[in-house]
Amino acid sequence: xxxxxxxxxxxxxxxxxxxxxxxxxxxxxxxxxxxxxxxxxxxxxxxxxxxxxxxxxxxxxxxxxxxxxxxxxxxxxxxxxxxxxxxxxxxxxxxxxxxxxxxxxxxxxxxxxxxxxxxxxxxxxxxxxxxxxxxxxxxxxxxxxxxxxxxxxxxxxxxxxxxxxxxxxxxxxxxxxxxxxxxxxxxxxxxxxxxxxxxxxxxxxxxxxxxxxxxxxxxxxxxxxxxxxxxxxxxxxxxxxxxxxxxxxxxxxxxxxxxxxxxxxxxxxxxxxxxxxxxxxxxxxxxxxxxxxxxxxxxxxxxxxxxxxxxxxxxxxxxxxxxxxxxxxxxxxxxxxxxxxxxxxxxxxxxxxxxxxxxxxxxxxxxxxxxxxxxxxxxxxxxxxxxxxxxxxxxxxxxxxxxxxxxxxxxxxxxxxx
Length: 418
Description:
This protein is α+β, with helices and mostly antiparallel strands. 57% of the residues lie in helices and 17% in strands. It is elongated and about 105 Å long.
């Protein structure tokens, strides 16, 4: 005889045709529920991983890997102190480029329109080495940002809102206060040298580049933000390398890496992924409750079989194993099918989405809204493992109560009315 006996009988019960249609229906519904829940979790998390990866790539390409600024509350560092800090940064591990920058909040004015802007003064040559935006997006106009030229490069959203094109003049208004405490805004006429577009509204609609000395001349040292922008050899290693560099900086300076500057983005993505996982895992939970219901009805239907097995010497532990085998097999088959379906969709989402949009004539992912040409997908095996383990655990727990109930059936009571 096939050994062990609980496994043999449990598999036999699964293969046997049941006389009760409702029990069979719940069995297939439970299997389908586990499959759908696992597949949905894999697809959703893979897409969200892809969106997170694209966001990370955009943020890394549009900003420096780290920046050094004056410590909050400290007096403005002197030129000698900035030079000392720059030497320390350049000598640090993993640093490939450093650029000094100045930032001023102001207004871009072109009658009758105005728009708040962040005017960033840069060293054109150094900026091209530090950030991808400096190297690839505005590289064609960086040579125009010469000292004393009062030329700027602005985002496409600003240009569209103010009706500006290369060669047009723009008035930049910088708020300031006189020695007497009276507001004394500073105005400067600047020429548009070029327009850039990076696909992020917070940059295209806010950022304006100018020569660092021209921007410095607009305000005194205490009313502007200065700092060093750093590029590491590996952007993903920036948090570790920044932690090593931070203690080496002179007093009065502090360092922030790109993950700290954009922490709100990644925190929001993590919260969304967690909530979506919990919501979709409820599908597996419902399927697990269906397994409980199905096994309870099977136990009731097989009371006579249980009594006969107990009479022939099967221990309660053996009865427990029979029904746990039946429930686990249903759950595990559902998990396996869910993993297969989920991986199939997640790995080919870039093919399936255009096919569905073309077939059913509706748009799943509007690139004009999300600034992305496609739905990204990043399948991570750690997610697959965790989803599978969680689903298997839920289905295993679902078999415990019915199996214990079956193991406690008294043979005499079960055979009394047979």
